[in-house]
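User: Hi! I have a protein structure encoded as tokens and I'd like to know what sequence might fold into it. I'm fairly new to this, so please keep things simple.
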């Protein structure tokens, strides 16, 4: 979707003035792109009409860069479509806050329960997980394993008790043990049926949850939207968690869920790992869809993982062009703790589909080898890799037990990385400057 829209807008970018026909053509392409991305057709229709209404007015024709104006309008409307601003969780003033995770089988309820508990705990809360999926074999075990990994308590009564009984017991347990949040992991089914809805309604009536979070798989596109609609009508949902957004290249579900159901998307699952859950920001998602990259998410992610001081030093070095092989090694280590490099790169503006980075993957073994190679260099070589000629390469390879081609590969990675990091520093500044100017 991002690519399609980018193409459409790049056609507009070159124009000094925009005619009504240009707007029409652009919007027809936007419409097709959205439909192809599996966005609900009613949503598309309304969306395009809205843009048209705004774009064909004076706003565009009197503007100096009409192409940008259209992008801005589309961006704003996409943001509105996805709910406008970020919606947080309802927290009860009287603990415990009770949250119920609902959704079809395989949507990611159990995983998201763990991720959410993990996030809440990082914010200083004391969550309790409740294992109320008594049907799926090993479902309770799955949650217990997550709980052990995260060191978060899991309440379970085995699979011989009713889910209602378990949910109720968990809330009681939380009250006694001082857990301020209870996250109830419920059972799904392959399809929505009366059985499932009755069970969920029973739990809802018994524990009166403050949040009913519907977990849907974004890769299922329009099905995710239909499922959301159905759950909301039958059960009432306070928020949606869109999972597997990391594998969803079309973005159709993200765009239509809010418009079709009226329920805000509160979180996005972006990977299998337990820290791969992000608060859903409609404006950032819109930016991502438009292919502008998601600098804010990137900065947040970097801030979380990077040593603040080191990051600052690095930035300075980049600006002063003093990024050395030692910094590179440091950076590789930091990157490793930030998750796959591709994830990070894809958030950079204009980097949505950069293929040159495939050989920038960081893995443990490589890191050890890289370290050895860099350690076999002289201080001068580390600062000025351009002096490393053939005979130096041979010496370094021999000293580190690597091959000359490994040394070459490392030097290539370094120069790519340096270029990239310079772009990053530049892009970060530009974006921040724009933000400030707003
Ligand atoms: P449940 O049946 O709804 O409880 O679903 P699970 O929590 O067991 O998840 C089903 C599968 O989806 C598991 O393999 C998870 O690792 C995977 N999964 C869940 N959330 C995400 C996500 O955000 N991204 C990716 N890539 N996989 C996810
Ligand atoms: Mg489950």
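Assistant: Happy to help. Inverse folding works backwards from shape to sequence: for each of the 438 positions I chose a residue that suits the local structure. Here it is:
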């Amino acid at each position: 979707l991002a690519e399609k829209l980018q193409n459409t807008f790049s056609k507009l970018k070159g124009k000094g003035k925009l005619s009504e026909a240009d707007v029409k053509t652009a919007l027809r392409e936007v419409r097709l792109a959205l439909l192809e991305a599996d966005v609900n057709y009613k949503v598309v229709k309304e969306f395009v009409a809205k843009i048209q209404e705004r774009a064909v007015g004076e706003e565009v024709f009197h503007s100096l860069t009409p192409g940008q104006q259209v992008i801005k309008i589309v961006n704003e409307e996409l943001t509105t479509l996805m709910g406008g601003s970020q919606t947080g969780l309802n927290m009860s003033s009287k603990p415990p806050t009770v949250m119920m995770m609902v959704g079809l089988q395989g949507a990611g309820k159990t995983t998201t329960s763990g991720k959410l508990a993990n996030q809440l705990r990082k914010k200083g809360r004391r969550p309790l997980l409740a294992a109320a999926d008594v049907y799926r074999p090993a479902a309770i075990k799955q949650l217990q394993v997550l709980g052990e990994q995260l060191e978060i308590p899991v309440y379970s009564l085995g699979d011989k008790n009713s889910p209602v009984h378990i949910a109720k017991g968990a809330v009681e347990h939380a009250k006694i043990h001082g857990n301020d949040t209870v996250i109830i992991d419920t059972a799904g089914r392959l399809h929505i049926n009366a059985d499932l809805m009755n069970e969920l309604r029973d739990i809802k009536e018994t524990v009166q949850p403050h949040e009913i979070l519907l977990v849907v798989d974004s890769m299922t596109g329009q099905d995710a939207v239909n499922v959301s609609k159905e759950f909301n009508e039958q059960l009432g949902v306070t928020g949606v968690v869109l999972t597997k957004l990391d594998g969803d290249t079309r973005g159709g579900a993200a765009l239509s869920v809010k418009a079709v159901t009226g329920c805000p998307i509160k979180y996005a699952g972006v990977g299998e790992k337990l820290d791969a859950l992000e608060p859903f920001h409609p404006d950032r998602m819109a930016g991502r869809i438009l292919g502008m990259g998601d600098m804010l998410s990137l900065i947040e992610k970097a801030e979380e993982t990077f040593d603040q001081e080191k990051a600052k030093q690095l930035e300075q070095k980049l600006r002063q062009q003093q990024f050395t092989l030692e910094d590179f090694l440091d950076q590789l280590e930091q990157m490793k703790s930030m998750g796959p490099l591709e994830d990070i790169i894809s958030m950079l503006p204009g980097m949505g589909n950069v293929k040159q980075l495939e050989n920038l993957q960081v893995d443990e073994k490589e890191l050890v080898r890289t370290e050895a190679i860099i350690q076999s260099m002289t201080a001068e070589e580390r600062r000025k890799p351009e002096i490393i000629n053939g005979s130096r390469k041979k010496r370094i390879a021999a000293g580190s037990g690597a091959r000359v081609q490994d040394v070459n590969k490392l030097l290539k990675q370094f120069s790519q990385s340096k270029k990239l990091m310079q772009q990053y520093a530049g892009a970060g500044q530009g974006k921040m400057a724009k933000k400030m100017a707003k």
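A useful reference point when you look it over: The first strand starts at residue 97 and ends at 102. Feel free to ask if any position seems puzzling.
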